[in-house]
Specification:
This protein is mostly helical. Helix content is 84%, strand content 0%.
Length: 366
């Protein structure tokens, strides 16, 4: 009996967990911080991969349908869809870039003329400027009596060179994302099935369900939002044309694209339409038509039309969406802002399918 009990003790000791429950939470927290730091530092590699995965999730059902219904090979249909996405990006960039650069130069002058003009504000500014010049002359006279300091010139890159650097990095990342999207559309399903075969049998259905539901949720989100944004953008462009704003098609396009960013996109569109209307128009009521028309239109679409189409409604709490926009925007900049809601949709699907993480899903759900 003594020998038997001695033999049982090591067996009991071997069943102890490698990490005690007291250390599990701090270690998991450090692991999560390590992942966030990696995502931040390696964003030039991580962002194209995530963009490619999201785009492939959206286009994969179309590629499958083209093969099943019309027997179009995946190589050809995938290339066609990727080229279509590239053409859309180039077309939107060319349509918006020229008027945007023109307005960047004109809007500050128009606003300054509107706010300053020949009013009392301009006289106050002139007096402040004159006082500042007198102080500057006094400081120069004092400095002449003292030892002349050594001048240090700091050479910094101009904003144009910084813009060109960011543009080159963006084009390289976009090319990588589109190339990876093509290969995911052609061979992504095979890769997923090979990965699933390595899992235990009870986990295979869960992974397949997560993949299919992610495709369905993202396709539904982008499809419904794209249709409603097309309506909002077209109507906004017509309103801008009716009141006589310059480049009405551009403002309609900007208003439609900005709605892909929840909440912040609407605020941005209203602000831009207000500035353009104030600078371009003379009558007060005409200045209010475009921003108020967009506000009423986007409210109508957001509250009634979008939930009615396919029964679509975001299942994530608006507070979580708002926080995620700021979080991913801080982590990855403007691209992170655009990816915030699709990423939260995928995260929501994963949380819903894994039993241990389902309580987190119930917390963030609407």
């Amino acid at each position: 009996m003594d020998g038997q009990s001695t033999n049982n003790e090591p067996a009991g000791e071997n069943k102890r967990p490698l990490i005690s429950s007291d250390l599990a939470t701090p270690i998991y927290g450090l692991f999560g911080l390590g992942i966030l730091y990696t995502l931040y530092v390696a964003h030039q590699i991580v962002l194209p991969i995530i963009l490619a995965v999201m785009t492939s999730l959206l286009l994969s059902p179309l590629v499958k349908k083209a093969y099943v219904k019309w027997r179009i090979p995946r190589v050809i249909s995938s290339l066609a869809f990727v080229l279509l996405v590239l053409a859309a990006i180039v077309g939107i960039t060319l349509a918006v870039a020229t008027p945007a650069l023109k307005w960047v130069e004109e809007v500050p002058q128009g606003i300054s003329r509107l706010l300053v003009g020949e009013s009392e504000i301009s006289r106050q500014i002139a007096r402040v400027t004159e006082s500042a010049e007198q102080v500057e002359r006094s400081v120069e006279e004092l400095s002449e009596t003292e030892q002349q300091p050594t001048t240090v010139v700091l050479q910094t890159d101009s904003w144009r060179s910084q813009l060109m650097t960011k543009a080159r990095n963006g084009i390289a990342g976009l090319a990588l994302a589109l190339a990876l999207t093509y290969f995911l559309l052609v061979s992504g399903d095979r890769l997923i099935h090979n990965f699933i075969r390595q899992l235990p049998i009870e986990q295979r259905k869960t992974v397949l369900r997560m993949t299919h539901e992610s495709q369905h949720q993202i396709a539904q989100y982008l499809g419904v939002l794209g249709l409603s944004n097309l309506v909002v953008g077209t109507t906004t462009g017509l309103i801008c044309w009716a009141v006589g704003l310059p480049d009405p098609a551009v403002w309609g396009l900007v208003a439609g694209l900005a709605r892909f960013i929840p909440y912040l996109g609407n605020i941005l569109s209203i602000s831009l339409l207000t500035i353009v209307s104030v600078v371009s128009l003379d009558e007060l009521w005409m200045m209010a038509v475009a921003p108020l028309g967009f506000l009423g239109l986007t409210t109508l679409v957001g509250l009634f039309i979008e939930p009615w189409i396919h029964g679509f409604r975001m299942a994530i709490n608006p507070v979580i969406i708002f926080v995620s926009i700021f979080f991913w925007g801080w982590l990855w900049g403007p691209v992170g802002v655009l990816l915030a809601v699709p990423l939260m949709t995928v995260i929501q699907v994963v949380l819903k399918q894994i039993p241990k993480l389902r309580p987190v899903y119930k917390v963030i759900a609407r």
